[in-house]
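Data availability (excerpt). The following record was deposited with the supplementary files.
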Amino acid sequence: MAEEQEPRFTAYPFNFYIFPRETNSNDPVVSMQAGCIKFNTANSMDWNRWIRKGITYVKISEMHKVLQNLYNSSVNSGVTITNTNSISSTRIFSELLN
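Predicted structure:
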């Protein structure tokens, strides 16, 4: 009989950029140390990609404000949202991107 081989997996590192999303109630400040900028630039950081194509996010502490703004805008547009707690994060971010 052939000897059974252990399953093998290969892992590769993956980096992705995140960038804070500006909302009606929040305009986050992005600050960096000069040494960090120098290090990241020397290691091929793509600053344009980070800003233009970074994965957007909103802090949990700002989420209620975002939901309330979505609720208020839906009321003004004639769309009915009865409970802001039931709005999925997918919908939140699709609304923010529009």
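Summary of structural features: The chain has a mean pLDDT of 78.
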